[in-house]
Amino acid sequence: MSVSKCTRLSGALVKQLLDSVDSILFDCDGVIWRGDQAIPGAPQVINLLKEKGKRVFFVTNNSTKSRKMYADKMTALGFDVTEDEVFGTAYCCAMYLKTVCELEGKVYLIGSNAMRQELEAVGIQQTGVGPDHICGKPIDWANVPLDPEVKAVVVGFDEHFSYMKLNRAMQYLTQQGCLFVGTNRDTRLPLEGGKAVAGTGCLLQAVETAAQREAQTVGKPNHFMFDCVASQFGVKADRCLMVGDRLDTDILLGSNCGLKTLLTLTGVSTVADAEAHQKSGCPERQGMVPDYYVESIADLLPALQG
């Protein structure tokens, strides 16, 4: 399949691409749904792929939902999905701490209840979920009580993020041997109607600045997310396709892991964005150029129904 990068996927090329892969990784928001609505045709695409023997997985940087919460949402939207096919950063973070870091101790968690659930599911205790209100003076903040069992600070999306959480994380991270892990570096979360809110990357950068340390991240485009899928299901990179709507996370993950890549235009990035990277001459930006693009993953339907 020797075609130039950023090729529109249509006609016979769709079948060629699908025949060349056994497994397909899909991002979620902007790819198979937007908000609480499935992208038209997306459930049929996913379900037909599985009927035709393809292994389908879902990889998302959103750390506010557990695998079960994602599977329940997808089932309600008409997708044929099981919990073990979902790889979110809440789950991948727990797996990273358990398998790579072999953490022995608690986590100070700047994150959600879903992250707490995923950590506890692999036997890791946490402290920190929920509000942490400020009191006292700066000298009190510098001597804030710390749990001696905490051996890692983890930063995900936290609607209760505050100065005291930032300060407490910093105090833990000044201790020798304390691990520092972030779910992802997405700085903005796009919403419907062209709106956006601050993303996890903003919180993570704040903690990194305060602690004067850099976190290890587990979400896209870091290869660990693909490693999670590959190690559990025996997925081979050269027979795998990554489908996403963001060049800097989804497509770059695919490039980093040697996967084929497909950009769908139902979310964040545009063909113009991809072409700008392609023309830049910058090796780092070349990794954000997809092999193919489609208007929507529904464009795969004719090949699957034929």
From TrEMBL:
It catalyses: sn-glycerol 1-phosphate + H2O = glycerol + phosphate; O-phospho-L-tyrosyl-[protein] + H2O = L-tyrosyl-[protein] + phosphate; sn-glycerol 3-phosphate + H2O = glycerol + phosphate. It holds the Pfam family Hydrolase_6. Mg(2+) binds at residues 27, 29, 245. GO terms for molecular function: metal ion binding; protein tyrosine phosphatase activity; sn-glycerol 3-phosphatase activity. Substrate binds at residue 220. It comes from the Eukaryota. GO terms for cellular component: cytoplasm. Belongs to the HAD-like hydrolase superfamily. CbbY/CbbZ/Gph/YieH family. This is Glycerol-3-phosphate phosphatase. The lineage of its organism: Eukaryota, Metazoa, Chordata, Craniata, Vertebrata.
